[in-house]
Amino acid sequence: MLSRKYPTRRSTKNILVTKTIAFTTFALVAFALNSILCRLALRGEEIDAASFTGVRLVSGAAVMVLVSYLVGRRSDTGVRGIPRGGSWLSAVFLFTYAICFSLAYLGLTAGTGALILFGSVQMTMVAIAIGRGERPRPFEWIGLLTAVGGLVYLVQPGLSSPPLNSSLLMAAAGASWGIYTIIGKGTADPLASTTGNFIRTLPFAIIAAVAFIPNLHLSHRGIILAVLSGGIASGIGYTVWYAALRHLTMARAAILQLAVPVIAAVLGITLLGETATPRLYIAAGLILGGIGLTIFGRKP
Fold it and tell me: What integer pLDDT is reported at residue 273 of this predicted model?
């Protein structure tokens, strides 16, 4: 009699771990690629910031609609995952993140922009938690103050400091993304919510395009880079990240995101020929180290 081999509990667990690692790696690289693609398009003047944002959001919405239709669960209206998802408030913050992100990269390198963005996201979420009545532990306070000090050191006037206007725009992008994340935290269907939010950003993208008409310019290469950013790095990247989050604790997910600015900096140096200054190294150590202390400090 032929014996059938059934998957053991250990093999199933190994498959799950491997899939989680693969999904997490893909998502983190995708997040970093957003910085690379945006910087590549704007640095070469292949496309203007408003058009890049618009094309990114349109392509992201298209991919999210497709993914939601294919894998989303059925909603009350009978179409899988597409209707009734998201909110206008979330869409406002998603669009604010996207437009500030693009405008900021007119003057920032990929690594510096990702570092300011990531630091601002985490500090915004911690600040909101404090405002809601959470009482940080000593290590959380130390970590928060260290990270803030790192950001201040990075943007303070000096020969190697990034442009202040661009830094403030990226900080605003990070704050918007942090608020967007908190609004959507705990949603019953993250995929449908993200799809709805992307769709709702499209009117804002049209308004921005009209407002920036004198500066509009597009090339085939610029459009392709924006589509890659919206469709793959954003749309598919967010979807894969949500899949990975099912098997990650929030603390572990936050810690893993510490890798995003590092990946962006390495890709910026490798693909864009950017250079990392001693100021960036010191600021990165302070910001990432401070955020790490904050995350670990939350554990009882």
Answer: 85
Q: What's the chain's Rg over C-alpha atoms?
A: 20
3-state DSSP call for residue 260?
A: helix
Place of tokens 């059938």: 4
Which tops the pLDDT comparison, 7 or 54?
A: 54
Q: How far apart are CA 33 and CA 264, in angstroms?
A: 7
How far is it, in rounded angstroms, from Cα 105 to Cα 112? 10
Sign of the C-alpha dihedral computed for residues 252, 109, 230 and 203 taken in this order:
positive
CA distance 98 to 52: 9
Token pair 């993250």: residue: 190
Query: What is the rounded distance in angstroms from the CA atom of residue 215 to the CA atom of residue 98?
Result: 18
* Structure token digits, residue 263: 């990946």
CA distance readout (Å), 203 to 55, 119, 169, 207 = 12, 29, 21, 6
The answer, yes or no, to whether residue 25 has pLDDT greater than 80, is yes
Of 53-57, 97-101, 161-165, which range is least confident? Answer: 161-165
How many CA atoms are closer than 13 Å to the CA of 200, on its beta-carbon side? 20
The 10s digit of each residue's pLDDT in 66-117 is 888 887 554 444 444 444 677 899 999 999 999 999 999 999 988 888 888 9
User: Closest Cα partner for 153 from 292, 278, 296, 257?
Assistant: 278
CA dist list (Å): 167 to 103, 115, 172, 212: 10, 10, 9, 21
Q: Which of 94-108, 131-145, 186-200 has the highest mean pLDDT?
A: 94-108
Sign of the torsion angle spanned by Cα atoms 290, 292, 295, 297: negative
